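hi! just following up on the protien thing from before. the input was this:
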Amino acid sequence: MADSSSVTTNQGSLYEQLGVVSTISQQELKRVYRKLAFRYHPDRNAGNSSRMQQLNRAWFVLSDPDRRFKYDQSLQRTRPPDTPEKQQPPRDNQRNVKANWFESLHRQSTRLGFEAAKSATRALATRHKCPQETYAELAESIVRNLATDVKAKAQLARSAGSAPLDLALVVALVGVKERCEQLLRACIDNEVSQRNIREAQLLDRMWDNLAHGISRDIEMQLGGNPRILKALTGRRV
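and the predicted 3d structure came back as:
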């Protein structure tokens, strides 16, 4: 993969290759990339493998806030000072880009966690023949805290080998794993309550629901399903 600090001169900047301005938000950038990737993917009749490779190189750099920040700095160094319309935005804007990216990642991870919790709630209510409300309150509490400290969780996700497009999903899994660890610590010196058991059931189900969207290798890098219910009770259901 090309060095994230390099600037493409013969084909324009990476932003120009994607047809966007350098101040674009991370969420909008992702939308544009996916639209272009759908159009130029070589599996399509009108696809273009060369253009697809160019898009992937640009997305690799711009999808990661650290690589994007370094790339933006390289643009600032190489652009002439007498072209204000192409000058790099102020450092405050660079910080805003990173902040907006992390906020977008937080929203995506929370949404994915909510979908996984909703599915788990329905399945567990059916399995144990109880109202969905039995698990709904716990699910809401889990999801609300799922993507806190998203920057640290994103670093763990990247260290596990997560691809940029899967980052929100892996961040949600990291959040589930941390919640499992918190629950286990809380139960070490206390009797395991029925509420603890229900939360463990939810966490196990949520992990499995989320892990369907990533490769087995990434899941194993994260340690696999913590199976918190088995850790608390010796059983898996």
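The domain at 14-89 is CATH 1.10.287.110 (Helix Hairpins).
The mean pLDDT is 84.
cheers
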